């Protein structure tokens, strides 16, 4: 029986270290993160009397490269895991995976396995989109696995004997859907009797990328005001936790209608509006949060960041959330009435 498996391979510039990894995406299960494992082929003559270390590095860029002047730096590196892989320990503290066992048999005695654990709550891989005129690396959180030869894990690595391979920490849609989102808001008027009531319901809480959201709107006009227009939009909320004023919102899709309007006093209106959040026409909009990509693939909007606890926010992370906002326009004197419902936007588990 033939067992086929795919591995990612990368060599150091001097050819003395070779990294093999079965995958480059590691799933965050909220309460724990999948271990990062692979195999390193070491040139034993070159490494004799030396040590080889493996590290998981999280990089966080929170400002543009072109703004880094006078020694100012908007870039941080976090070392989330570190382990000596060569010389190997006499006994491994874990059982090698099937792929690791096959690689060890194929590569011979010069190959050693490794496994690194990233702490739960580590920031997710998110990129903030550059505008078309921007140059340099985009802001966001990225991960890479680093292998280097040195005397200690804090030793300065030399480029010729270092391997760095980009990896990604991802979250997939939860298996259990949450409750159906629903809200009712009312507005009183100072000089007018009665209320204007807006009831907003989504058909479910969890949506996959590319899926259409059905927004159920029910307006009951018990006031003497006139509803002239209805607008619905999907908002992407981005929170750059390191920055005090790092919260902002992007409108990723919207729809506006006057169907059924003007809604006169005493009348009611029921309507379903469809919204499909997608990157589409937003590819030149600065600040849109995207899922970080390992290679040049079609980018997608960033998935919702799922947290075990609301307080479990890494200071170097970017938290992304989505909501549907519906607004009723009552004219210049009447003002407006708005309601908002959060929902979850994710990729399905593969």
From TrEMBL:
Gene3D superfamilies: 2.60.40.640, 2.60.40.840. Keywords: Sensory transduction. GO terms for cellular component: cytoplasm; rhabdomere. One of its GO terms (molecular function) is G protein-coupled receptor binding. InterPro entries: Arrestin, Arrestin-like_C, Arrestin-like_N, Arrestin_C-like, Arrestin_CS, Arrestin_N, Ig_E-set. Residues 192-350 form the Arrestin C-terminal-like domain. GO terms for biological process: G protein-coupled receptor internalization; negative regulation of phospholipase C-activating phototransduction signaling pathway; photoreceptor cell maintenance; sensory perception of smell; signal transduction. It comes from the Eukaryota. Belongs to the arrestin family. This is Arrestin-like. It comes from Papilio machaon. The lineage of its organism: Eukaryota, Metazoa, Ecdysozoa, Arthropoda, Hexapoda.
